[in-house]
């Protein structure tokens, strides 16, 4: 035993040093998302707004997406916030841990770093142990920050016990994700397969709990369950929702999920002890005797490398659009009682004027409906405009990932192998750029299809919404997305080590976009992002001159990126 775990603590300290930046960013980002939204949501959701949300969360589609609304039995802000945020938060933490553990296990083996470590007096199981200890530290810190943060910033309904359960829920699901990643890092022969398999397990468990959660209802203030609830109890994601934070505050699901994580961890250690270095328990699939036609060109190679990611993201965007479409039928009821949404439609000045006139929320809603009718569009179209406004920025995530895969290939010294053949740098980089630019178009199409397909089934009058409108509301964001993509190409060619700037610009654009609609920021600040020039359909009309200029700017940025990429040292990232 001593030999197997030799120098585990030293290796753990080394991993903590390597992770000091990446994990800190993850922890702060998740803590900001979870804790930072509490005061704003509390202010935005007044008692009338909460009643509308309680009714919406009884919708089976939302239950399948967010989990059962236990808060319907005790209508408090804390319970409402748990219903809105807990499941999505713990799923995000699980993803973080998959990346974390596989990065320090299977990925290190692929990059031959593990062999260097094993050449030192380090035990056979020390690396996996150190990776899991690192995951424990990261999740413990996250749990403490979230727990105390929610208690400090929450209202009277967010008790200390409930806040600690919130933090512990994130922590144990994080450890569960780490244990799943540890297991698949032993089973699979590559980091890509390990990540894909771990993601598949999490996705399956997320979907498994949906039928059981949909069987849960609240009748006369009492929670009633159905026969299918066993499916939710099998899934750790369904199980952690049974903590009922800020409602009943149960701790037992936390310990059960922790026990399940221990079981997966034991299996991971067993497989780690019997397999060969650089090999997985499950042998890698034998390759084809001859390469496919895609490998005959650098563009085809890029397609082959990104094929799975493209399929996953396209399906994900369709599902995301469909999920937003599920609430279309309840939008009028929600908007009638939610001042935040009314501000998005009328602006703070309009809401203040209506309130000074003594208008009720229902009268304000009627005023909004009359105003939009006079302009020739519907309230549903206005709601869809708000959704596409945010999604126009969010959908940049996969587009950036497709483009920056070129950087990853260069960093891992695989780009040199391609460029050693009669392939020009511009032709090589163009393969990834074309995929990214076309993916922007395809993603907007599938997002519009998902929104429309579900929305018309929820509307009492499907004629209120046309596919042409939704498609136009999505496609107007393409020039702005292309500018952002052009900036990524420019940085890749000019400052390859600084491509992270595009992610910071992305975060700033999303922040300005969301709060700019409520006139919190001045107009000049909104124009610092290319999304500030995008027309808000159906309120604004499309200015094709502006769209053309933005497209031309995107083209110039991209061409400049190609030029600098063709001139710089191809090893600028690794040196």
Question: What does this molecule look like?
Answer:
The protein is mostly helical and 575 residues long. It has 3 domains: 8-283, no CATH class; 293-318 and 385-575; 326-376, no CATH class. 71% of the residues lie in helices and 1% in strands. The chain has 27 helices and 2 strands. The protein is globular and about 80 Å long. The chain starts with 7 loop residues before the first helix and ends in an 8-residue tail after the last helix.
Mean pLDDT: 82
> Any idea how many domains?
3
Main-sheet strand order equals 1-2
How far the N terminus sits from the C terminus, by CA atoms, comes to 40 Å
Shape: globular
**Biggest pleated-sheet summary:** 2 strands, antiparallel
**In total, how many beta strands?**
2
**Unreliable residue runs:** none
Q: In percent terms, what proportion of residues is strand? A: under 5%
Order of helices and strands: HHHHHHHHHHHEEHHHHHHHHHHHHHHHH
Please report the number of helical segments.
27
Q: Evaluate the radius of gyration.
A: 25 Å
- Class by SSE composition: mainly alpha
Helix content range of the residues, please? Answer: over 70%
């Amino acid at each position: 035993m001593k030999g197997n775990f030799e120098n585990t603590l030293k290796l753990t300290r080394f991993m903590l040093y390597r992770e000091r930046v990446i994990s800190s960013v993850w922890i702060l980002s998740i803590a900001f998302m979870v804790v930072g939204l509490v005061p704003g949501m509390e202010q935005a959701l007044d008692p009338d707004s909460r009643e509308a949300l309680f009714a919406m969360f009884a919708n089976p589609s939302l239950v399948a997406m967010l989990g059962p609304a236990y808060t319907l039995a005790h209508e408090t802000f804390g319970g409402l916030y748990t219903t809105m945020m807990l499941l999505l938060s713990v799923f995000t933490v699980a993803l973080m841990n998959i990346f974390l553990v596989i990065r320090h296990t299977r990925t290190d083996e692929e990059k031959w770093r593990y062999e260097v470590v094993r050449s030192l007096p380090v035990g056979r199981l020390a690396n996996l142990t150190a990776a899991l200890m690192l995951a424990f530290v990261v999740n413990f810190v996250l749990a403490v920050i979230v727990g105390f943060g929610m208690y400090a910033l929450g209202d009277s309904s967010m008790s200390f016990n409930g806040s600690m359960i919130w933090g512990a829920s994130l922590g144990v699901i994080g450890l569960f994700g780490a244990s799943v990643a540890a297991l698949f890092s032993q089973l699979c022969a590559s980091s890509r397969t390990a990540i894909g398999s771990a993601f598949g397990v999490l996705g399956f468990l997320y979907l498994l709990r949906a039928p059981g959660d949909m069987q849960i209802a609240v009748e006369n203030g009492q929670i009633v369950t159905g026969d299918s609830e066993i499916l939710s109890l099998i899934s750790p994601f369904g199980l952690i929702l049974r903590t009922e934070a800020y409602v009943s505050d149960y701790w037992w699901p936390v310990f059960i999920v922790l026990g399940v994580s221990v079981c997966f961890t034991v299996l991971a250690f067993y497989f780690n002890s019997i397999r060969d270095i650089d090999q997985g328990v499950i042998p890698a699939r034998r390759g084809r005797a001859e390469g496919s036609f895609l490998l005959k060109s650098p563009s085809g190679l890029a397609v082959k490398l990104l094929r799975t990611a493209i399929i996953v993201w396209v399906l994900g965007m369709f599902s995301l659009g469909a999920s937003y479409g599920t609430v279309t039928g309840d939008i009028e009821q929600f908007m009638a009682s939610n001042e935040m949404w009314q501000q998005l439609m009328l602006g703070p000045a309009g809401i203040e004027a209506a309130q000074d006139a003594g208008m009720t929320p229902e009268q304000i809603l009627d005023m909004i409906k009359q105003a939009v009718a006079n302009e020739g569009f519907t309230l549903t179209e206005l709601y869809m405009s708000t959704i596409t406004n945010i999604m126009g920025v969010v959908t940049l995530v996969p587009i950036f990932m497709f483009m920056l895969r070129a950087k990853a290939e260069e960093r891992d010294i695989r780009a040199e192998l391609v460029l050693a053949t009669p392939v020009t740098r511009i032709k090589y980089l163009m393969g990834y750029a074309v995929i990214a630019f076309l993916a922007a178009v395809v993603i907007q199409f599938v997002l519009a299809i998902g929104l429309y397909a579900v929305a018309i089934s929820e509307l009492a009058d499907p004629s209120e919404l046309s596919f042409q409108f939704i498609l136009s509301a999505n496609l107007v964001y393409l020039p702005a997305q292309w500018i952002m993509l052009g900036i990524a190409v420019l940085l890749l060619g000019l400052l390859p080590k600084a491509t992270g700037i595009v992610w910071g610009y992305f975060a700033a654009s999303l922040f300005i976009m969301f709060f700019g609609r409520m006139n919190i920021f001045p107009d000049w600040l909104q124009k610092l992002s290319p999304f500030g020039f995008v027309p808000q359909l159906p309120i604004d009309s499309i200015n094709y001159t502006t769209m053309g200029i933005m497209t031309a700017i995107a083209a110039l940025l991209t061409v400049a990126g190609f030029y600098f990429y063709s001139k710089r040292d191809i090893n600028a990232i690794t040196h």
